[in-house]
Write a structure and sequence with these properties.
This protein has 239 residues and is of the alpha/beta class. 30% of the residues lie in helices and 26% in strands.
Length: 239
């Protein structure tokens, strides 16, 4: 058997991404990095993912959602859509952490593979998402994607993660890593570009949770915001 047919939705950042998988195989991937486009693009991307893979929405075995942390608005749109589909289709909802998904995805990146070959278990993977100013959402994982340090919101300065970098080589990636490169100046710090949240990173963690029947309560599931939402005031008054 090919395995369960799962729809994956990733909207934790500016990237709107949808994938369809069967077992551990990707059937389709539709995504865009246009800012604030989730509400406009998500439903169309879902339809296109099914169209490209010649599958019907009613055939899916589960809906998977990237649960955060990340953009409050993006997470709310993605989770609302995933819950609505799971409820309407009477399918289970599977959720996985955005940063852990990125760590899974990093394993297929050539530069990360080279670091793993060179440093082995002494390498840590640190996906980072921008949380404004010098704050990031970050987590630390082994090359086998076991949790070394739980996800947290960190304000970055020259002393950040020094204890970890003294003992390990650390691979930093994600849109939060770029702005931290100067502050995290250390011989054991490695910065890899081009690893951003994508629905195809969710395939393996979602499949694992599906096989273990680790499903969410569709009625009560909420995104992992990590920080409280703070509304910003418009710069100019609109008459």
């Amino acid at each position: 058997m090919a395995g369960p047919l799962i729809l994956h939705i990733e909207t934790a950042t500016d990237i709107c991404s949808v994938a369809l998988s069967e077992g551990d195989q990707q059937l389709s991937l539709i995504e865009s990095g246009a800012e604030r486009s989730h509400a406009t693009l998500l439903s169309a991307f879902i339809r296109k993912a099914f169209s490209e893979s010649a599958r019907e929405m009613e055939q899916i075995d589960a809906v998977a959602i990237s649960k955060g942390p990340g953009s409050y608005t993006g997470l709310r749109i993605g989770v609302s859509t995933a819950k609505g589909l799971a409820y309407a289709l009477e399918k289970p909802l599977v959720a996985s952490g955005t940063l852990k998904n990125m760590a899974y995805g990093a394993g297929s990146h050539q530069e990360v593979q080279e670091l793993i070959r060179k440093y082995g278990k002494n390498l840590l993977l640190c996906p980072m998402l921008d949380a404004r100013r010098m704050e990031v959402y970050a987590g630390f994982y082994s090359p086998e994607i076991s949790v070394v340090r739980e996800v947290s919101a960190d304000v970055i300065d020259e002393q950040s993660y020094r204890d970890l970098m003294e003992k390990h080589h650390v691979c930093f990636f994600g849109n939060g890593a770029t702005k931290c490169e100067a502050a995290l100046n250390h011989p054991n710090a490695h910065f890899i570009k081009g690893i951003d949240p994508s629905a195809n990173q969710m395939i393996l963690p979602a499949l694992d949770r599906f096989n273990k029947k680790q499903f969410e309560d569709v009625a009560y599931f909420e995104p992992f915001y990590l920080k409280d939402f703070v509304a910003t005031k418009p710069r100019k008054k609109v008459l």
